[in-house]
Amino acid sequence: MAMRWCRSQRVAFLALLGVVLGLVPASQAGDAANLELQKMIFAARDRVLPALVNISPVVRDFSSGKKEKSSVTGSGVAFREGGYVVTNYHVAGEAEEIVCTLWNKERVRAELVGGDPMTDIAVLRLDFSDYKGEKPPISEFGDSDKLQTGQIVMALGSPFALSRSLSFGVVSTTGRYLAETFRLPTGERSGIFNTWIQTDAAINPGNSGGPLVDLSGQIVGINSRAFMLANNLGFSIPSNVVKKVVDEIIRNGRVERSWIGVAVQPLQELEDFFDAEQGGVLVSNVENESPAAMAGIQAGDLLLQVDDATVSARFYEEIPLFYDHIAGVPVGTELTVVFQRSGEVRTTQLTTVQFGRPMGNHYEVDRWGFTVRGITKQMALEHRLDSMQGVLIAGVQGGGSAEVAGLSANDVLHTVDGREIQNLEDFKTLYEGLDDDSKEPIMLKIKRRDSSRWVLLKFGGQKG
Amino acid sequence: MNMTFGRITAGCFVVLALMGAVVQAGTRDIYERSGSSVVSVSYFVETSFMREVREVEGRDLGILVTQDRIMMNGAVVGVSSTGSRPHGFRVHFDGGAIIGAKMIGIDEFANIAFLELETPAPANIKPLSFDERARPRVGDEVHVLGLLPPNLDPMVHIGTGKVIAAVEKPKPFLITDLFLDDALGGPVFNSSGKAIGVLAEMGGAGPSFASGFGGAEAGIYALIVSSQTLNALIADPPRHGESRRAWLGITLQALTADMAQYWGLEERSGIIVNSVVPMSPAERAGLQEGDLVLSMNGAPVPVNQDEHVPIFVDQVGSSGAGTVIEFGISRDGQRMQVPITLAAAPKSRADAEKYRSPEFEMTVRELVFSDYRAFDLDPEFQGVLISKVGEGGWSGVGGLRPGDIIRRVGEESVETPGDIEELLGKAVSEQSKKLVFFVQRFGRTQFITVQPNWNGQS
Predict the structure, then answer these.
(1) CA–CA separation, B366 and B389 (whole Å)
(2) What is the Cα–Cα distance from B110 to B197, expressed in whole angstroms?
């Protein structure tokens, strides 16, 4: 029922477009315009479709307290000679094995080159060593800054695993700010460093990682998200963001970012309260012991200049630009920051530090019935932990000895039988050094909120 | 053998026949004699439904215990999900009399609340008294008076059941199969018509009491709060704002037998100190995280599973502020005795000072001890917590949310609800066009602009 409605609406929309494009008010003129548009769509399709890739990675999930594998489907597009394919981080960024299906229905394996959860981009490389067929051509990136609201675009990919599907629509808006509440299935918050292209070209699960193309057949975005239960509210990562990120992934396997520890908010209604005649970026929060805190920056300060660049964020949509500007300077750069406090202009120096990986690696603690994750700086900030010491409990197996003993996800493990755990490597070394067959109980000391707790793991003797 | 058996059977028969006669008379008797001391109490209470706060009317059972006091179950008239207390109490008596009432307090241990009537109850209605001498045993028949739906008159019904268990740990309690529905807080009588207690939910006896007991969770079984407990409270009812709970200032978990064995202790029970609250009696006495508390005033701490932690909590809590307790602890294998002078429990959320601004459709309250724990605030942190915001009001539209902690309004620091009252009062009298709130949300700060529209105010 819903399908049919969408379809008839699309037909009506095409007819309407014909009327708008037509200069002479006659049905033949409409037909001619339609024909012209149809030709352009075919031409654009032919430039991208052969580069389109259906991606079936095997992904891991640790949230149940053990490592579980599942096969998912996403999309991607070849963009560089050598078999490089761009897709979403949430499709293949943590994949174990990747099988890709090309436009000619042939299958090839691929390996993960690297990924960036903060922009939700991953790069794969197709492995042609056993492949005798025709290699896919590459598609070009367009300039997403030139996109206009209303511009015709197409989304290509594998919605619900239906490969080689094309949907059609327009750019609903450029520069959509999506607040920081979006979380990837892998747990990371994504999207604070960029705005998004919103489109009504249908984007369904499985379209993730596929290209959004304009009528010239250039990639203007990578389709990543859609509001479920909405009508055609899809979001693409702008190609200019993608271009930068894929280059860095191919060079380094990951994206390195600088961090100074400030959160900012739009000035808008606060301009007169802060005497922000020359604009500026309003600091809303400063993390303890961050470079900004050590440089004396406080909430309420108005940042005016970072080195030679004038900075300003009056609206939400401008905030990702500021964060990206800071993130983009090499880690360890000394920045001169000019800011205004209570009407007085001041200058301070600070040295950026690594933003670091948003989340740490997983590890399955199979004998004890839980999974852990290394703690990164960003995780410590998010969970409001005092330090990065220990490992985070990622999941606890239902009915296992750890669950029975009272361990829960998000507890932070600090000691095992009195031995302190500094980080994941430490924990792995300790755990792997223990006797596999020992039935001796193990005492864990954990932190839950700001309290410690002791958890005694017991292992099945005859008593069970 | 046969002879003896026959004689016993015959004897039992006689006794049963006698009991049967007493029970029959008792049920009618209880209903007729005590039915009118059971009253219906109506009140208004806030509830939150999908983030929207609404006021709804509640109606529950009360018992007239003196000519001007009503006793109720504390759970039904406790603090609502929005953090506010019910109000507008009206007590409906048999015969149609309605008298307004005020809640005077809830006892935290027995979970029993008391209301004071604005004028004494009608003279023909006798307060119920509880008999402490009757000691019900497992298997005894018991009766409870409950409330019928409001459209029925008279409003009281009687139910019959049995005492099915007499529990010793974590607290001594009688368990009954009396039907709880409509009889929560209702008086329980023995077969000779003496009031022996009131009916309470299994979970109402303290944290995690009877958890894992299927019948209790399904509401099939109920507790009887004893006459001894009730009479002590009736004689000296609890008052709001004066907590009787004594306070140590630790978070804790049970020391299980396995853990005790792991640490090589002789004892098989106790508690583990999980954290020590800054500036608390425990901290002043030098208690540390990881200490194992094995004895209190020389007696072992009988806690070996987390479900029994309330035994320790209640033992300390009911000791009274100012009491000195000598704790026997083990720290890194060293034994020591630590005397600790208990303090009065810190103010609870329900007793926190509040202020509501009708213009800004916002209610704030002072930060109390438990907030400092919940929001992980430093002891010297100052601010005022937003407890309620009208979504379509100026504050809600501006972006303030319940749970935000206001630290400044404009340039002024905020420490008490009185500060907010003063600052918003000034904004009202000056008809300010814009207020900038500096708030903390999920541990991070931000500025929020609230722009009143004085023209649109109805």
Answers:
(1) 15
(2) 12
Distance from CA of A377 to the nearest CA of B (A): 16
Chain B nearest-CA residue for A265 = B446
Query: Which phi and psi angles does B196 have, rounded to 5°?
Result: -110, 0
Judged by CB atoms closer than 8 Å, whether chains meet at B447 and A270 is answered as yes
- In which residue ranges of chain A is pLDDT below 50? 1-24, 462-464
A435 assigned to active site: no
- Nearest Cα of chain B lies from the Cα of A445 at a distance, in angstroms, of 10
Q: Quick check: A299 and B438 CB within 8 A?
A: yes
The strand pairing partners of B364, in sequence order, are B355, B386
Share of chain B residues as helix, strand and coil, in percent rounded to the nearest 5: 20, 35, 40
- For the stretch B15-59, pLDDT in tens is 444 444 444 447 888 888 888 999 999 999 877 766 566 778 888
Question: How far is residue B405's CA from residue A287's CA, in Å, rounded to a whole number?
Answer: 17
Our answer to whether residue A401 is catalytic in this structure is no
The neighbouring-strand residues paired with B25 are none
CA-wise closest residue to A457 among A408, A418, A414, A407:
A407
A270 interaction partners in chain B (CB closer than 8 Å): 436, 447, 449
B445:A269 CB<8 A = no
Instruction: Find the closest chain A residue to B289 by CA distance.
Output: A452
Residue B220: per-residue pLDDT: 67
Two tokens, residue A288: 């303890």
What does the pLDDT look like over B400-421, one tens digit per residue? 999 999 999 999 999 999 999 9
CB A446 within 8 A of CB A455: yes
Phi, then psi, of A10 in degrees rounded to 5: -60, -40
User: How many residues in chain A?
Assistant: 464
- Write down the pLDDT at residue B55: 79
Q: What number is the average pLDDT over the span B139-154?
A: 88
A90 belongs to the catalytic site: yes
The CA distance from A205 to the nearest CA of chain B, in Å, is 29
Q: Using an 8 Å Cβ cutoff, are B114 and B103 in contact?
A: yes
User: Is A269–B434 a contact, with Cβ atoms under 8 angstroms apart?
Assistant: yes
| Chain B residue closest in CA terms to A453 | B274
B159 in Cβ contact with B178 (< 8 Å) = yes
pTM over 0.90: no
Q: What is the pLDDT averaged over residues B119-143?
A: 92
Among the partner residues B256, B275, B445, nearest to A299 by beta-carbon distance = B445
pLDDT per residue as tens digits for the range B225-250: 889 889 988 988 888 766 667 899 99
Residue entry with tokens 């509040």: B354
Plot region of B237 (φ>0 → left; ψ -120 to 50 → alpha; else → beta)? beta
Q: Tell me, what's the ipTM?
A: 0.85
Q: Which residues on A lie below 8 Å from B400 (Cβ)?
A: none
Q: Which residues pair with B349 in a beta bridge?
A: none
**A:287-326 residues touching chain B, CB 8 A cutoff:** 299-300
Mutate to test the interface with B, among A269, A342, A448 (most CBs of B within 10 A): A269
Q: What separation in angstroms does the CA of B102 have from each of A188, A435, B68, B122, B251?
A: 52, 66, 11, 17, 35
